[in-house]
What we know:
A five-stranded mixed beta sheet has the order 1-2-3-4-5. By secondary structure, the protein is an alpha+beta fold. The longest helix is centred in the N-terminal third of the chain and has 17 residues, at 12-28. The protein contains three helices and five strands. 31% of the residues lie in helices and 22% in strands.
Amino acid sequence: MIEFTLAKMEMIDQMCEITEQAKAQIRKMGFDQWQKGSPSREIWIRDIEEGNTWAAVEGDEVLGLFAFFTTPDPSYGEINGAWLTGDDSAYAAMHRVCVSDKCKGQGVAGKMFAKTFELAAEHGLPSVRIDTHP
């Protein structure tokens, strides 16, 4: 059964392995996202220290990761278009979503999105923003 926990430093090697798997999959699809080093081990360490990274786990195995933020994201300051909830509304942001190759197609990403929506609601935030590129 998948459980969610704040990522811990002892998970960092699994986190980096999953990130490299995601980078390889994205590269195979012909996209440049994540191909210039980010997310990196240093970014995950910072996120762990700041309590921003959640891990989907089963026992001791990390199945997926995402970073969750409740503070305004500078990259959302100016967009082409308009936010459905208004430009100045409070929101959560989800970044660095990746799932282990071992469990792709098993609903892990969907459960991570559901956890993000749950966390946003717990913080009283009416929406979640996510992107693939600046």
